Amino acid sequence: MSSPRVPFGSPAPREDAAAVRAAIERVVASGWYVLGPEVTAFEAEFATACGARHAVGVGTGTDAIALILRGLGIGPGDEVITTPLSAAYTALAVMMAGATPVFADIDPERLTLSPASVAAAITARTKAILPVHLYGQAADMRALEEVAARHGVAIVEDACQAHLATTDGRPVGTVGVAGAFSFYPTKNLGALGDGGAIVTNDESLATKLRRLRNGGQTSRYHHQEPGINSRLDEMQAAILRARLPFLRAWTGRRRELARQYRVELAAAPVTLLREFDAGHVYHLFVVRTRARQRLQAHLTQEGIETLVHYPVPIPRQPALASLHPADCPEANRACDEVVSLPLHPGLATADVTTVASAICRFHED
Ligand SMILES: *Cc1c(COP(=O)(O)O)cnc(C)c1O
């Protein structure tokens, strides 16, 4: 097939290319590739950007979630309530920590964890609530904080799609006890490989996490506890340092393009998702339609790439079948209807018009 007129996106460096190349050269020449000055500097810079006191660089966003849970002493026999509508890695991370993911349903409009459904899922074994700030928009944190406080459980934030997002003006990742970020190449801040970070305002948790990511070592070759090997490497840290100064402008551009989609799709035969918080960072621009398959086929015909985030609710993934997770009807419905349109900082205004007018020409019947 020829290359699409409007591709979904490419994580390749653009205006940041020279800075990224310089960062790579610097690390190559340094002779220091794991847990060195680049990671230390990136952790400080990322913490500042997130409005958090501490950041800990780790191997992936998945590891970030699993490490936070382990850092909180959550493991076998403990339950963590999370959302059925996310990358499956959110729930897999809970399992990696040895705990059991329990699914509450989503709010049908916001598509993030329903606080009422979370409250109904709490048991004596519940140790944490793990909301996902889906598509770049924070979950309903005020209501979730209330549920968490009432039951004395921790909130751990999956902010892997929400770099720089805020909720009521508060930076995501700092509302709960800690937040997990991913730097997978397609995220709002991406590495040229895998990477992740944890942010927290809790100094003793940060210290514990620095140990846990490095095999549980307290000093070289002295392992205090069974940690894992999940370190952000110097190359990725340097690349992320080169890209971080662009993130605010990239986020602004994402918001602008989303606004344009909203205007140009106002009369289109798709349902737009409501923006609940101006702190939305538009990792994805998602619309809903009951005719998703035909809409996607129509857009493919027009040379427009789309994706589905996500086609299968996590409780229905065969990988979790042995847990017999609760079925979540709102999430099931969303998984059948959502479709993600191209949205990235390199997208042109004209591309949004191309996509929007193609959708306006689509007939549901
Ligand atoms: C990407 C993502 C993850 C996993 O991050 P990795 O760095 O790929 O491990 C977890 N949760 C959400 C919501 C994500 O988007």
Describe the structure.
It is a single chain. 37% of the residues lie in helices and 14% in strands. The chain has 365 residues and is α/β, with parallel strands linked by helices. It folds into two domains: 17-245, Type I PLP-dependent aspartate aminotransferase-like (Major domain) (Aspartate Aminotransferase, domain 2, 3-Layer(aba) Sandwich), CATH 3.40.640.10; 247-360, Aspartate Aminotransferase, domain 1. It has a seven-stranded mixed sheet, with helices on both faces. A three-stranded antiparallel sheet has the order 12-13-14. Helix 2 (37-50) packs parallel to helix 8 (234-243) and helix 5 (115-121) packs parallel to helix 6 (141-151). The mean pLDDT is 97.
